[in-house]
Amino acid sequence: MQFIVQGYPAYAYTGGRPYEPKAPAIVFIHGAALDHSVWQWQSRYFAHHGFTVLAVDLPAHGRSPGIARTAIESMADWVSLFIEAAGLERAHVVGQSMGSLVALDTAIRHRTRVERLALIATAMPMAVNDAFLAAARDDSPAGFDMETTWGHARNSALTQSPVPGMFLAGASRRLNGRALPGVQHADLAACNAYRPSADALRGLDVPTLVIGGSRDQMTGPKAGEALAREIPGAQFVLLDAGHSVMSEAPRPTQAAISRFLGPGRLH
Amino acid sequence: MAHSGPKTPHPDTLAVHAGQSPDPATGSRAVPIYQTASYVFPDTETAAALFNMETPGHVYSRLSNPTVAVFEERMAALEDGAGAIATASGQAALHLAIATLMGRGGHIVSSASLYGGTHNLFAYTLPRFGITTTFVPSRDLDAWRAAIRPETRLLFGESVGNPSVDVLDIPSIAAIAHEQSLPLLVDATVTTPALGRPFEMGADLVMHSATKFLSGHGVVIGGVLVDGGRFDWIASGKFPTLTEPYEGFHGMVFSEESTAAAFLLRARREGLRDFGACMAPMTAFQILQGLETLPVRMDRHIANTAKVVEYLAKHDAVVNVHHPAIATHGDHALAERLYPRGCSAILSFELKGGRDAGRRFIEKLSLFSHLANIGDAKSLVIHPATTTHFRMDDPALAAAGITAGTVRLSIGLEHPDDLIEDLGRALYASQK
Fold first, then answer.
1. Among the four residues A138, A232, B321, B360, which has the most C-beta atoms within 10 Å?
2. Which superfamily is assigned to B294-430 in CATH?
3. Which one of B1, B3, B44, B265 makes the best mutation probe of the A interface by having the most chain A beta carbons within 10 Å?
4. pLDDT tens digits, residue range B118-133?
């Protein structure tokens, strides 16, 4: 479904159900050089369990045109405007990796738009190593290989996928490969640079869930747990997965988010 | 492009391990055979979620099975694709691809150098369902381009044609397909991912008869269809089966559901569900036993073939040998570029003396088995004009590179000296 944000079309997948703004809404935010489809299972599950789902494609990602934002704060501003453009007062905001920083910053600077906050595979700071940034800057295939390999549990290619018949790393690599030139670097640089103040984190009064992957090679579980300690009242849940928690552990991810958000409203 | 960043494990490692974890229930290191039709739902909530694709998992073995999934994921990893679907045969994989992409009125442009069964499907069977095919000489790029019509939905060819052993110029034909926003499906049965990966050359979909080299033992019939995950179905605008609501699954729009795997979703959720040509778990297990050794076996197949080709090319009873390893073969340079490890353990040749010489030759062989298959550990021989391609008329035979005197060999894993001795005796007998 398309909305208009700042004059540009903004795509969001609604989980296979018509858009229903009266139900409690969840905005899912993807990671670097990815799109809404990383939330395939969660989108469909929550859309059929009493929630309005809006799995967005950030500007210049997936099916949303526009200019890639170069700072997490700009992406968060866009998310806030998206929630408004969708005709919602507020929404639960759930993000993974870069999307977790966007979700966090949306809660910090657009507090009234965020009902509950879920941060998946996250870290603060989310430092990106120089080789990764350099490869992304050059639009080298190495950048996508790094994101794919480190973005899943070690040797994920050598394990059975929870999704029968899908080679998760291969599918993720192909999704990365669809990114427009420069987008991966813009995203990674934004992650690397984002530093909210300690006061902003300590002052956050939003119910927050942090989900970590015990085999995450990018944002290790200790980093997620540390961030959860910084946010007052935040819960931390550790799942058996790498960085791509939603596809590597789809059912536990759904269960954790579901427990945190509580029941939706039956359609 | 070479780079120093992390990569997935090498194909040799993937062939042994990809897609399998030690069994969570028993710790079994070998792939267990989940010989079951269905799966117990822990509760009604989970059952509903599985049926509605809100959560992944197994429901019924026509749709997916844990043993079959190991084979699918291993093949997807070996081909560097997004995912795969195993099928009852190679022909079922081809039908699944076509039925997922088009319906009545659809059109295929195909290489004329084809396995006889595929030619049957395209020339005789699919027209009954309103799908037509234009056959083009595999090397004539202008003919490929000229054959594309507004209703064309697929370009198709075999990586190495059977039995003509001509090499498909995948990069050039993929470029022609992509100029028209069309996908290229490659039957890579002869080359296997051990010798070359069509996705790296530009193909969009790959299929195999898993009965052949993937298994290597010739004890099962199976197929597999792999999606590279690169083709942009939405931008193409020619594939409503993937980009418009499907009433057969609650109005699902597959391209919204999954950007990289929309094709696989529809093929599994409609194609396997409704046509039902799934792979049995025992079959998957048996193919996996062969797949573990694929890279090692293919090297030996290729080495043996090189010796046989060299021997036949010098033999007085042989008019000519069709194999890209021969410098005068029309695809020699292309084969060296696309398949530096070698491209085919299949070869064909013309005997002096035509059909009668061919009959004497085949009947005198003792180590080679006379049968309709390729890609076995055992060396095989057949006379295509009277067997695999017997339904084709003379022009079609000629287009496929077959004459009355063509003999096809599939070189196995025996010692090459023994194979050459067997061939020598039979060649001598053929000229009497």
1. B321
2. Aspartate Aminotransferase, domain 1 (3.90.1150.10)
3. B3
4. 999 999 999 999 999 9
